[in-house]
Every structure is written in C-alpha cells, then in structure tokens.
C-alpha cells in the first residue's frame, strides 16, 4: 500500500527548537505526504514552494526522525510514492589494508565497527559527538584547537569514562584524533573513496562537487553510519572555521590534518597532494558556506 508524497532536500543545518521539531543537516532527504499538506490548506502546486508553506510535517529519510521542519531550510525535489520501509541487508565491510594493525598498534583499544556503535536518529558515535561538542564549547576560538595532533594521551576507554568538561582543549582534540585512529578501518571503503576522488577531479563547481560527494557518502554500498559519521566530522570542522579570525583554522589546514585518520592514506604519502585532502576540503568549505548563508528560523502560524 503506498500514497503520494513529496521529497525535499535540506539546504541548511537546523537544530530543533521544540519537541515536535526534527533536526536537519545539509543534504538530508525528507518526505512529506500529500495528505499532510492538504490538511494545512495547501493547494496543488504549493508543495514546490516550501518556503511559502512555513513549517512542514514530515519524515527525515536520512536520520529516520519524524516531526516538523522549516520550509525555508529545504528545496523541493519532486514527487515520490510513499511505502512502508522494508529492512535492507547490510553488506559486509570490504577488507582494507589500513584495517590490519601491527602488534604495537593493537596494544590500544580497537573500537567496534561504526555500524555497531550507533544508529538513526543519532548521526555519529556518542563518544565522538561528546568530544566534538566539548571542543566547540570550550575551544572554538582557541589557537590551540587541533594543533600538533598525535592521538596520544587518554585512550578511548578512558575518554568514555572521563568528565570531558575537566579536560584541556588539547586533550579533547587528541581524543577525537585517537577515536578515529582506533576505528577498525577508514571512514568509507576504498571503492567509495575512489568515487569521491573522481568527483573532485571532474566536477569543477565547488557546490556541485560537494553535492556529489554527499551523495557518495550516503551510498547504499555501505552502512549509513559511515557516511553519517563523516558528515558529522565535516560539520564540526566547518563550525570551527567560523572562528578562523581567532583560531587561524581553514578548511585546507583541517583537511590536511583529518584526511589521514579518516581515509587512512598509505604511509609516507604527501597529504598536501592527496586528492582525498581535496575531497575533505570541498566538503568543509561547502558546509561552511551553508552555515554562513543559513537564514534565521522563525515559526509562523499558518
């Protein structure tokens, strides 16, 4: 049994203000039923102008959340038949040379696979989310944020038990780096990394390229948790770049620092020339542009 609905794409991040709202992240795909719009008194064709409708009740296909979201934050994609979701089998994670650890590396804690750490509506592993939030709260404007990253210091087990509010910004940053290092493999399998490299080499427009990259990150070829974690890290880094006049961070410098632990380039490779650095730089820059262009949300009664 299916019904007619409309699909929208989130243009900006939105953090819910009321219990009945849902969060939005750039690139999220949302569904709104035709019946819901008719109940709001919308006429045929109004679905194509969500900014004029105001608040839409719908379903976030990316995060699996249901609730209200502002029409000014989304764009109309098209019509879509709405059917009850059916579970899809999860494909096995491709083997990666980067996931083979030496004896010295294996002495540390190897984290579970991302697909085992969280699931929708969460958008990243709980510990990683807490670390990134603490950094943004305590050190967004600090010159020490993400400088001289080593992954040394507390291991992930100790970080999980620690009071993050009591840690220095440098320890929190090392914690993020250590978390990524302790994952069993890269943030995305090599096949999807190759698609991303092809995109940055062929698509010259930055925003178009970023849209392609976000599409690759949400590919059904791997569990959704991989792409969600990547985009959560990208949003975190972009938010830090909002304070670049104080912390001296840039999308390029952060891409060079985070590309190795996220994508696990071969040892000895020149990160400044690696196309995966370009991938991350494009994603961070696009996210930063989206944040800066986001309108102020105002709830308007229909």
From TrEMBL:
<keyword id="KW-0343">GTPase activation</keyword>
<dbReference type="Pfam" id="PF00620">
    <property type="entry name" value="RhoGAP"/>
</dbReference>
<dbReference type="InterPro" id="IPR000198">
    <property type="entry name" value="RhoGAP_dom"/>
</dbReference>
<feature type="domain" description="Rho-GAP">
    <location>
        <begin position="109"/>
        <end position="291"/>
    </location>
</feature>
<protein>
    <recommendedName>
        <fullName>Phosphatidylinositol 3-kinase regulatory subunit alpha</fullName>
    </recommendedName>
</protein>
<dbReference type="InterPro" id="IPR051854">
    <property type="entry name" value="Rho-type_GAP"/>
</dbReference>
<feature type="domain" description="SH3">
    <location>
        <begin position="3"/>
        <end position="79"/>
    </location>
</feature>
<feature type="region of interest" description="Disordered">
    <location>
        <begin position="79"/>
        <end position="106"/>
    </location>
</feature>
<feature type="compositionally biased region" description="Pro residues">
    <location>
        <begin position="84"/>
        <end position="94"/>
    </location>
</feature>
<dbReference type="InterPro" id="IPR036028">
    <property type="entry name" value="SH3-like_dom_sf"/>
</dbReference>
<dbReference type="InterPro" id="IPR035591">
    <property type="entry name" value="PI3K_p85alpha_SH3"/>
</dbReference>
<dbReference type="GO" id="GO:0005096">
    <property type="term" value="F:GTPase activator activity"/>
</dbReference>
<keyword id="KW-0728">SH3 domain</keyword>
<dbReference type="InterPro" id="IPR008936">
    <property type="entry name" value="Rho_GTPase_activation_prot"/>
</dbReference>
<dbReference type="GO" id="GO:0007165">
    <property type="term" value="P:signal transduction"/>
</dbReference>
<dbReference type="InterPro" id="IPR001452">
    <property type="entry name" value="SH3_domain"/>
</dbReference>
